[in-house]
């Protein structure tokens, strides 16, 4: 039996219940996207601010829930809707919860709440690493209390003026992503760039743009995959029949995939290598671009949206950074604002009558009516959000202050705003203060511990009759370390200290690109091997190392030789020559 025949046997009440459950599952998937945003923002910023990023993503949902339940949901979805502009809250969720449930408001409340949280959290990344946490909480409350509810009501409340006109934004390219994107742009511009991002001359003109790479591209990639997964709920939850849901999943897959390929190819051609972080942004750009018309475009339309999105995100991210000098660490403006606007307009251009929504796009039918409505709608939403959030940020800046002090920014917001030494505490280069119960350990104080059976020779320190100690420090390519290690062991070296270091020589590193900005990689990864020798001739060590490391190209490394005054073996107390010898 075909799937459509099975669906035909199911009662309308059962259908409503089934799709109601799917609606709530979709809401849960959208909530999971909070984790995705948190990972993207954390990975694309520095480790000293990771805890602050996580805290902001947690609190914009929690604060948003409080204000949305108090006022936001009523402003957005109230049946008592004034002039197609704003709802009148009745607080039925508190005063008559049973009726609230019976009228089917609960699924709508949950779903619009997680949508509201998405709009709020977009801004976090663009203003990362320099925003006061208290000011961020205030902003988050405002956007969830009035900004998102009012404009989203225009779009999704049946009485909203844009809904009445036929404005189509199925899952929020305009109502969510453009709102978060324009707010991110205003906030980042008002707040200014991170310290060290732009180098200015005496007149204040930018003469150099510095790249500030994120600390964990793997976290950023994980966040991207989580977001893509959650986006199937983001776009598909409002689909009320199987055919439209399948179509939405198809377009929600094609657009980001094509966008990612486009971004990869574009950055590869432009910079000589494919940009990893920008390609991740390309995936998100394609998802944002197809969100408004995921039910209204066909496969070809989704592909076109993806191509434009993949190009647009690179152009906008680089233009903001290199031309306008607006510091957006994660590319929120390029992903959400630029592609939110593009996705909204794309509905008017690419909506196919054959798609489930049955809309008439200009390029399919020659009818520009829908395109005109889409342009009007996105302009109205951007003006409302821009004016409201511009006023909000201005008030916050002149009262509580938007930005932390320079000292706090340099130290990192984890420490100054939340009292965290680090989000990665076990990796701190600090002496640990924990007591592991080693009070009974025997400390060597010049005499051999009782437990040792090795006879100890006491050698007077600095005795000229003792063989000379020499330290050989070798800095070499990472790729040659294993060969060097084997060669050293082969000539009798019994101990070495190996470190990963950064450095440069005559070549002064090589330039690379991060998100379109040249990174002057004057410090290249190298291996440093420290060896203290006495029995093995120093010249033997040097010649062996030279033979193993030589390739004839710049970057083969350096060998440094130092005199060593003394060496002490902690376990036995042996000094000088004997401290370097094997236990027999």
Report on the structure:
56% of the residues lie in helices and 9% in strands. With 584 residues, the chain is an alpha+beta fold. The chain folds into 2 domains: 11-418, Ammonium transporter fold, CATH 1.10.3430.10; 469-580, Alpha-Beta Plaits, CATH 3.30.70. It has a 4-stranded antiparallel β-sheet with strand order 6-9-5-10, covered by helices on one side. A two-stranded antiparallel ribbon has the order 1-2. The longest helix is centred in the first third of the chain and has 32 residues, at 12-43.
Question: How do you describe this structure in short?
Answer:
Helix content is 56%, strand content 9%. With 584 residues, it is α+β, with helices and mostly antiparallel strands.
Structural descriptors:
Ammonium transporter fold, alpha+beta, Alpha-Beta Plaits, 4-stranded antiparallel beta sheet, 20 helices
Please tally the β strands and state the result.
Answer: 10
Q: Please report the number of helical segments.
A: 20
The CATH homologous superfamily of the largest domain is named Ammonium transporter AmtB like domains
CATH class of the largest domain: Mainly Alpha
Residues in β-strands, percent: 5-15%
SSE topology string:
HHHEEHHHHHHEEHHHHHHHHHEHEEEEHE
Rg calc: 31 Å
Q: Briefly note the structural class of the backbone.
A: alpha+beta
**Largest sheet strand order:** 6-9-5-10
Mean pLDDT: 87
Inertia-based shape: elongated
Distance between the termini: 82 Å
Total individual domains: 2
Helix content: 55-70%
Strand count, sense and barrel status of the largest sheet are: 4 strands, antiparallel
Q: Which CATH architecture of the largest domain?
A: Orthogonal Bundle
- The low-pLDDT segments are 430-436, 441-446, 450-454, 459-463
CATH domain fold name of the largest domain = Ammonium transporter fold
